[in-house]
Amino acid sequence: MVEEKAIVWPMDVPLLRTISTTANAPEAKILVNAFHLPKVIYGLAGLQIFVGTMAQMGRKKAFIVTDKGLKALAGTVEKALKGVGIEAEVNDETEPEVPLHVPKRIAEHMQRSMPDLIVSVGGGSVMDTAKVSWILYEVPDANLTAIDPMKPLGLRKKALLACIPTTAGTGSEATNVSVVHDESVTPARKEGVLHGELYPDFAVLDPRFVVRMPRDLTLGTALDALSHAVDCYLCRSSNAISDALALKATKLILQYLPLVLERPDNLQLRLRTQIAAMMAGAAFSNGGIGTTHALAHNIGAILGIHHGMACGVTIPYVINFYAQVDDKYILLAEELGIKGDPKTTLKELTGLFFDFYKKIGAPVCLRDLVEEKTFKERLETFVRYALMDPTGPMAPRQPTYEEMKELIENMYYGRV
C-alpha cells in the first residue's frame, strides 16, 4: 500500500506537467533552443590530460566522490591529482540509488574540506550523488525537491565538477540531471533533480576505468545507454543535434556491444561504448527522454530490477506504443537499414531489437526478470508511478491509466 506522500515533486503538479509538455513541443523549438555539453577528454591519456588541465586552471584541492567498491580506482585519480600538486581527499560513502540522506552527509564533509574541485569516480549513482552533493555544498539551504530549472542556482562559486565514469551506460557525465531515491513513500520513487547548471564541467572517458566491468554490468549499462538514444530520437522534445548524437550512439551500441561482450579486455572496443554512452547521455539531456524511463525507473524501484536491464526490456514495446500516434519510428528504421510500408517497417524494427537481445543474452520481456505473482501484486502501483514519472511530458504519447496499464502488461507478457 502506498503511504501518503511527504514530498511533492515538481512533475507531480498537473500544471507544471502541462507547461513542460508545451515547452518541449517541436513548435516551441523554433522560438529558442540550446545545446549543452561538458568538456570531454577521452582516451588512455585522458586522466593525465585532465589533471594537468586542472593544475593549469589553478585548482588546489579536490574532493573525490566514489563508493567502497571503487576505492582503488579513486586512489588512481587521487595519486594523479597529487602528482600535479593538487591536494585530494577520497570519500567512499555513496550508496546505490542515491537515497536523499547520503548526499546531504557528503555535502557536510565538503563543507569541512572546502574543495575547489569535485571529482566523481563511479557509475550513475556515484555521479548523481556527486551532483546533488555539489548543489548542497554550493547552496547549503537548497531544497532538492523544489529546484526551479528556470532560476539561477549559483553553482561554481566554490568548485568545478568533473565526472570519470566507471560504467558505459548512464551518461550522467554529460547530463544536467541527478536521479535520486525518494524514500518518503513506500515503495520508494525515483525522481530527478534537474537544472541547467548541473552539467559537469569535465567528462573524462578512460577505458581503463571500465575494462574490469563484469559481463552483466557491461550489458545492463549499455542497454541503459541504448534506451537513452532510441527514446530521445523518438521523443517530441528532441532536436536536430540530439537526433544526430542519438542515432550515432544507437549504431555504435548495436555494432560494438556484442564485440565488447566477446572481447571484454579490448580497450579500443571499451572506449567506443564509453563514447556511445556519453553521446546518448548528451542527447537525452538536451533532447528529452520519455516512456522507456517512466517504465524503467519503476521497474527498478518497485520490482527491484537493475536499471539498465529495466531500460533495455522497454525499448521495443515503447517503440510500438509511440508508433500508434507518431511516425518518427520510420526514420529510425531507415537509419538502421529497414525500409517498407509502415506496418512492415514497425514489425522489422521491433524485431531488430528482439533479435539483438537474443544475440547478446538480454531479456526480451519483463517476465524474464520478474515472477508473475510479484508483478500482479505491484501492477497498480507500477501504473500510477509510471504516469507520475517526470520523464512523461517529453514522450510523443501521453497515456491514460488504462493505456499505461496495457503497455506494462504487453511488456511483461511479450506482446507487440
Radius of gyration: 20 Å
CATH T-level fold name of the largest domain: Dehydroquinate synthase-like, alpha domain
Give the % helix.
Answer: 40-55%
CATH class of the largest domain: Mainly Alpha
If strands are numbered along the chain, what order do they take across the biggest sheet? 1-8-5-4-2-3
Number of domains: 2
Measured distance between first and last alpha carbons: 31 Å
Q: pLDDT below 50 for ≥5 consecutive residues: which ranges?
A: none
Written account of the structure:
This protein is an alpha/beta fold. The protein has two domains: 10-30 and 214-413, Dehydroquinate synthase-like - alpha domain (Dehydroquinate synthase-like, alpha domain, Up-down Bundle), CATH 1.20.1090; 39-209, Rossmann fold (3-Layer(aba) Sandwich). 51% of the residues lie in helices and 10% in strands. The protein has 14 helices and eight strands. Strands 1-8-5-4-2-3 form a six-stranded parallel sheet, sandwiched between helices. The chain has a two-stranded antiparallel sheet with strand order 6-7. Helix 5 (124-138) links the parallel strand 4 (117-122) and strand 5. The mean pLDDT is 93.
Please describe the topology of this protein.
Layout: H1 14-23, E1 39-42, H2 46-56, E2 61-65, H3 71-83, E3 87-91, H4 101-113, E4 117-122, H5 124-138, E5 160-165, E6 177-182, E7 189-194, E8 202-205, H6 215-234, H7 240-262, H8 267-287, H9 291-303, H10 307-323, H11 329-335, H12 342-360, H13 372-388, H14 401-413
Parallel strand pairs: 1-8, 2-3, 2-4, 4-5, 5-8
Antiparallel strand pairs: 6-7
